[in-house]
Structure formats: C-alpha cells, structure tokens
Design a protein that fits this description.
elongated; about 60 residues; mainly beta; two-stranded antiparallel sheet; about 0% helix
Length: about 60
C-alpha cells in the first residue's frame, strides 16, 4: 500500500474542502496502486493559426 496526500478533497456535493480549513496541511490516505491521472481531453493538441492573404491583420490607426 502507498500513502498519497492531497491539499484538498472533493465532497459529494462537489465542493472542495481544503486541508488548511480544518487545521491540516494535507489529507493523506492509503491506495492499493498509484496510477497517473488522465490527461485532460484535447491535451497535447495545438491549434494552428492559418492566415491567408485576406486574413492579414490591419495596421493600427
């Protein structure tokens, strides 16, 4: 078993309870296995800016 500690926990009603609000520095608990968090959807994808001839920004006045 591995101990992990987090500065907050999320309650069932969706609100976050921060450890400092209850006089702690972190909430610690045991887990069977440590796994990496899922990356946010769309992570790693970078958009490109395609400026054609007609999309050239105008000069400031």
């Amino acid at each position: 078993m591995t101990m992990i500690c987090r500065p907050f926990i999320t309650l069932r009603n969706g609100k976050r309870l921060f450890a400092h609000e209850v006089g702690k520095t972190a909430f610690c608990f045991e887990v069977d296995e440590v796994r990496k968090a899922k990356p946010p959807e769309g992570a790693g994808e970078q958009g490109t800016l395609d400026l054609g001839d007609e999309d050239v920004p105008s000069k400031p006045h």
